[in-house]
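Revision sheet: structure tokens.
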Amino acid sequence: MDIPEPASNNATGFNLFDTLIEQTDILAVTTTLKIVLLFFSLTFILSCTSKSPLGTADNPIEFFLVPGQDAQVLETNGKTIEKWLAQETGLHFKIRIPLNYITVVESFGSKKADMALINTFGAILAKEKYQASIRLRGIHFGRDFYNGQIIVKKGKIKSLKELNGKKFAFVDPASASGYLMAADLFQKKNIRPKEIVFAGAHDTAVMMVYQGKVDGAATFYSPESKGAPQDARKLVKTQLPDVFEKIAILSLTEAIPNDPVIFSKEFPVELREKIATSLKKWIKTPDGQEVMMTLYNMNDIRDSSNEEYEEITKVLLRLGKSAADFIK
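Predicted:
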């Protein structure tokens, strides 16, 4: 009887060796793929997160203008500001005109705004919630403050008390003259309108009173210059030539620091100072005078700081409010 020889391990060993080689090859390929994928992932991440220096063509300075009046007027004059700043500083800018006041404030929180020429109340909100810093303050013929005003149709309402139970228009919840200071005045005088609406802009608020859509409105006030009124009514004089005869100022609010220029908390100090110097120079030019008087009723600007605007924070406290009540 033939005794079978023990089974050879050669075939099994050979297969195992091949398997090891195949696994080694697969491991090498997998490792290579991982390295390649890691390289492209890092490249992609860096391309997404690495920005060009602020103020370059690929990363322009986002300069927001508060929408206090007609958007077309803001856009046309905004281009003049953009052009001057670019020529004077060598930096690239992009003027932005949002739909409302709060959007300007929120843009500092979402990192979309680098700087803004903003209303006083908006500056307080941006400072409190997003640590924006006030750098410049507007001046109107030597005055660095203004007031809010309560306007009505001439002869129809003759005292603040008569606004009780009436329909009243504020401009925007983030407007110092068009809301905050008027609300403070109403609280002190115990005035309670029956219905409140927000016009969105000072010129719209004036027109609503003129057209009889509301009984009164809160807008900004600046004193006359060379016999010509400088308050919010002047914004609609072209459309409504008799606006000064038809619309009367019923009362003024307490003083408000003029609109400031603010910068985001991350804004480079050297660029901030360069822009501040340029704006102070520009407003003294004929173009600067015309544009800034048209947009924000100011013919000069000066250095300023957060501390100069603390009085508005005190008004908020009197009304029992804070920045968080206006920014959700």
